[in-house]
Amino acid sequence: MSTAQVQKATSVAVPLSVGALVAVALGVYGRLHDPTGVAINLAGFSSFLAVKTWLATLAAVLGLVQLASAVALYRGHPKVAPLHRWSGRAAVAATLPVVAHCLYALGFQYDEPRILIHSLLGCFFYGAFVAKMLTLTRTDAPKWLLPVVGGALFTALIGLWLTSALWFFTTFGVIR
Predict the structure, then answer these.
(1) C-alpha dihedral over 55, 60, 62, 66, to 10 degrees?
(2) Chain centre to alpha carbon of residue 5
(3) In b/e form, how buried is each residue of 97-114, taking b as 16+ CB within 10 angstroms?
(4) Which residues span the membrane (predicted)?
(5) Which terminus in the chain has less CB density within 10 A, N or C?
(6) Domain total for the chain?
(7) What angle do CA 160, 27, 8 make, to 5 degrees?
(8) Nearest to 59, CA basis, from 89, 25, 31
């Protein structure tokens, strides 16, 4: 194997491996940590589940902005780059209170298929996020890697929304 081939393989293997390690570490922590069941309620919401639902919905909407702006960037419209960066930052920021609550208060659960899928997607989401951030810093990465990792991140986010917010809205209603 030539030096160039090793470098190209490394440019793919490092971000994906670190992302996988982050996903596994979150899953292990979530499973081994004793959930507290304690949640923080915010004024104006009936429960922290409602807060998490609306934050997840905000993140999903921002994820759609990410998808649209990524397509525009790949079509040669660099003016949307700030929108892409800031909507991504805001989307991840919206998920931080949610993941903190999920890991701290609930842990990694597998009692029901929906909850197991949600737990797996949550770990995968942050692993994909780390892989995307590491891919962005690699100038030697193949051009296909960033859209693949970004697509995985978007898919995980929508899967998380479907297994949490959609479930909440269909079970309890939009206004609760």
Answers:
(1) 150
(2) 31
(3) ebbebbbbebbbeeeeee
(4) 12-33, 53-74, 86-109, 115-134, 146-169
(5) N
(6) 1
(7) 85
(8) 89
Tokens at 39, concatenated: 């949640």
DSSP characters over the chain: --HHHHHHHHHHHHHHHHHHHHHHHHHHHHHHS---------TT-SSHHHHHHHHHHHHHHHHHHHHHHHHHHHTT-GGGHHHHHHHHHHHHHHHHHHHHHIIIII-S--SSHHHHHHHHHHHHHHHHHHHHHHHHT-TTS-TTHHHHHHHHHHHHHHHHHHHTHHHHHHHH-S--
Domain containing 167 equals 3-172
pLDDT tens profile 104-148: 888 888 889 999 999 999 999 999 999 999 999 888 999 999 999
What is the distance, to the nearest Å, from the Cα of residue 37 to the centroid of all Cα atoms in its chain? 23
Provide φ and ψ at 11, rounded to 5°. Answer: -65, -20
Q: What is the maximum alpha-carbon separation in the chain?
A: 61
Positions of the chain with pLDDT lower than 70, given as ranges:
39-43, 175-176
Q: Using CA atoms, how far apart are residues 85 and 99, in angstroms rounded to an integer?
A: 21
